[in-house]
């Protein structure tokens, strides 16, 4: 019996699968022209199988990655723990490239080497230039270009003002931009340079920069204004040539430089074999980059700890820096560098706290650091210079002088330190000793521009006008650091004018172009930027109509009181002592000076003082005077300018001869009238002649410039 076989129904998909052979995906050609087959699972496995395969591949890559990473870690550990590398040998080889002398090869060394490379490439270029055009090369003159820099100054810590805490360069008036008439110069401070740099730095600004701070210095103490006598002429070396927008007196702990480390010239020491091949400015730049060696042999082994503490200080974490350095000092009490770092941190903290006590603590720490054994010469120099700067900042001029004398004893061949010592003598009024110091410098270094301008200044203060001119002129022409100062242009021009030499205005123009003077005519050195500037003013211009009317209505009363004083033989009228007269007699009787009554003067002229006490724009003018002025026949006052643009000067005529008396301001000459007020801005050049047959008597009243704010009037330093 034939079996009937029931066939299972076959689906169409199964038949197709059986009839159609396995088809491999077409080979793909990638962008590089290489064929690549698509990966598939064997035996037509579904997508799930393919996913498993790809997952296995990813795991495999990750595993190999971890294996390599672990091998790298353990290899590093083996190198360190098993001493597989002779690091001492490697460091010894790298020490050949230690350009900054700190015991290792780091980024700073690389920078120095790169700079040297750039310097060395200058020689072949110069040689090529000579071959191509020798004539032109010989006629090339390198003109020093001044840098302008941020100025910093002193801030009052408390109500007791020391001379070093008044009117520094960074005294800023709110809302008013300070105009650096003396190009105070100076570049943005770098904390590293503040601590590390002791070699003098080339800065063609009013002052030079050297030592531990890259700050330009006036040859005078900018934080310690010494008053210009009678406010007429900046003859005192203590008066800085600067823009006096200075109202917010701010203590800048790091900038003790401007408070008194008067930078002298940069000592550029270059190997003779390179001297002929390298341009002078490049050589100076190369020398500027040289870092001092502050670490002794032991301190190089703890450099990482010192760097960690220093990093805190540079980041402004001064409290933490003080603690860190204090810990280092306790651990390594014989380390000069640790103690120097502590002093710098305390100095920064004094700035932050505005504390004289903390600054005094820093001064003590500086001294301790300099006296420790094994201190490197560079560290001793940096520490003592910093200490002298801060002492001058606090107005402790004699202490700073003693510190600088010690420095000169230790480093007798350093002319920059001797120049600083000369300025320190000038700051205490010891011109004789300063003169002797500069004579010693010029005997050793006859071309020292810094010594020349200061020596010329001293000669002029001795009224040796003709002798002073070549020193002032040669010093300015040298372009040496510290010579580009408004006062030296001022005094050279003044000396030339007195000798009848019209080239004076060439130097005034140059001073103006260098940024020291507002114009050739307006040559005041303590200025607030943006104030209206014109030589002659009308009563309406000033806004002080009430004061002017009071003076003119009561001129006879004022005159009579002045005459009563003149008739007395009490000597209340004193001769003008600012060396402004070519000839003749000129007496003054002062009632107010620098915003304060002058002794008991008002007792002699009570009505006059009573009239003025209602006008604070006059009696409160800290940059002016109120005084009687009597000038005898045959008197001539040299062309001169006042010290500041912050005031206007009123002249009330009391006894005026009919002819022969006149005053010139710029190129406009006028005459006084009895009972009338003349108003001019004495920051412009003015000159006076008294060629009458009898005396001339006037009443001088200085008032604040009307555009100064109340805040500025309260905070500007006295002159």
Overall geometry comes to elongated
Q: Give the distance, in angstroms, between the N- and C-terminal Cα atoms.
A: 142 Å
Uncertain runs are 1-55, 116-287
Share of residues in strands:
5-15%
Q: Strand pairing plus helix content: what structural class?
A: alpha+beta
Query: What is the strand tally?
Result: 17
Roughly how much helix do the residues carry, as a percent range?
Answer: 40-55%
Report the major sheet: 8 strands, antiparallel
Describe this structure in words.
It contains 28 helices and 17 strands. By secondary structure, the protein is an alpha+beta fold. Helix 16 packs antiparallel against helix 17 and helix 18 runs antiparallel to helix 19. It is elongated. The N and C termini lie far apart (142 Å). The N terminus is likely disordered.
Keywords:
single chain, alpha+beta, 5-stranded antiparallel beta sheet, 17 strands, elongated, disordered N terminus
Short note summarizing the structure:
By secondary structure, this protein is α+β, with helices and mostly antiparallel strands. Helices cover 45% and strands 10% of the residues.
Give the secondary structure arrangement, pairings included.
Blueprint: H1 12-19, E1 28-29, E2 35-36, H2 47-81, H3 87-94, H4 107-132, H5 134-139, H6 191-196, E3 242-243, H7 256-260, H8 272-275, H9 280-289, H10 297-301, H11 303-314, H12 318-331, H13 336-353, H14 356-371, H15 377-393, H16 397-410, H17 415-427, H18 431-444, H19 449-461, H20 465-478, H21 486-498, H22 504-513, E4 526-527, E5 536-537, H23 539-542, H24 545-553, H25 555-567, E6 574-575, E7 581-583, E8 586-593, E9 596-597, H26 606-612, H27 616-619, E10 625-631, E11 635-640, E12 647-655, E13 661-665, E14 668-670, E15 677-680, E16 686-690, E17 696-704, H28 710-715
Parallel strand pairs: 3-4
Antiparallel strand pairs: 1-2, 5-15, 6-8, 7-11, 8-9, 8-10, 10-17, 11-16, 12-15, 12-17, 13-14, 13-16
Helix pairs in contact: 4-9, 11-12, 11-13, 12-13, 13-14, 14-15, 15-16, 16-17, 17-18, 18-19, 19-20, 20-21, 21-22
